[in-house]
Specification:
13 helices, MetI-like fold, mainly alpha, flat
């Protein structure tokens, strides 16, 4: 098990370094010039050249990459030229709002697992058909469209909830529902399939032959054995919620990391983009490692295979 853990952590470190390297080169080969964006279109050539020298953009790409690696090692990404503050500190100050939104959306999506288990336990019946149809329809809807529809109906027409901003618990409802929608549908489908397959196992049939009710069979025997794919895929998908939060935060003007990242990309604020991508990559990789370890805990064959 120790070897499996070390191997998983080592892979995670390589992935984080790869993500940080990828964003470095993407930002520098993207069209546009950071110095021109910062100074504006009226800047002279001399002013642009001086700004490029100040930012280190006049150096060769390998030299810039080496400086970037030293920043990465010390977690010092420099200051944001738009905000005049350390980039990493600014990113971390926005992170709690994104984490709050992601955790709320995850809690809402957990109802999908319960509904999916119900559908799998009654496979082929009207309950299963209704829940499966609802999950398929929900999964096919683009999240931004769901958000706009929620704003139009719940915020503008009935005035039940605020449409944007923050400050009260009511402000998080619409963005959390929007962010949770595809994850809920995914959990419904995965849990339904896993529970239905497990219900067909011989040991489950023997339990039912002994007189146990469907509820007793599901809670006592099925859920633990059906949990492996649900836990694995669910934990991995939580990381994708951070990516989805970029769009959702923009739609609902939620002051989180996603909206900050969108603004930084538009203004070519390298420091913020690099710090934000590193933080997101670390969180996603940690969730992946947790999912791998949870899967190995549920199924010893996984860690034995990884240690071979």
């Amino acid at each position: 098990m120790t070897r499996y853990v070390l191997r998983t952590v080592g892979t995670a470190i390589v992935i984080v370094l790869g993500a940080a390297t990828l964003v470095f080169f993407i930002m520098r080969v993207a069209p546009g010039d950071q110095a021109t964006v910062l100074l504006g279109p009226d800047a002279t050539a001399a002013e642009v050249a001086a700004m490029r020298s100040r930012l280190g953009l006049d150096q060769s790409l390998p030299v810039q990459y080496w400086h970037y690696l030293t920043q990465l090692a010390t977690l010092d990404f420099g200051d944001s030229y738009r905000f005049g503050r350390p980039a990493l500190g600014l990113v971390l100050s926005r992170l709690p709002a994104t984490v709050e939104l992601t955790l709320t959306a995850t809690a809402i999506a957990m109802f999908g697992a319960a509904i999916g288990a119900l559908a799998g336990a009654y496979r082929g019946r009207w309950v299963d058909r209704g829940i499966s149809g609802f999950a398929l329809a929900l999964y096919s809807m683009p999240p931004f469209w769901i958000g706009i529809m929620l704003i139009l109906v719940l915020a503008l027409k009935f005035r039940l909830l605020p449409s944007a901003g923050t400050g009260t618990p009511a402000h998080i409802v619409l963005p959390a529902l929007t962010l949770a929608a595809p994850f809920t549908a995914l959990l419904v489908r995965i849990t339904r399939s896993s529970v239905a397959d497990t219900m067909a196992e011989p040991y489950v049939q023997r339990s039912r032959a002994k007189g146990l009710t469907t509820r007793q069979v599901v809670t006592g025997h099925v859920l633990r054995n059906a949990a492996l794919p649900v836990v694995t895929i669910g934990a991995l998908h939580v990381g994708t919620l951070l990516g989805g939060a970029v769009i959702i935060e923009t739609v609902f003007a939620w002051p989180g990391l996603g909206s900050l990242l969108v603004s930084a990309v538009a203004n070519r604020d390298y420091s913020i983009v690099q710090a934000a991508v590193l933080v997101i990559a670390v969180i996603v990789v940690c969730l992946n490692v947790a999912a791998d370890l949870a899967a190995a805990r549920l199924d010893p064959r996984i860690r034995l295979g990884g240690a071979a």
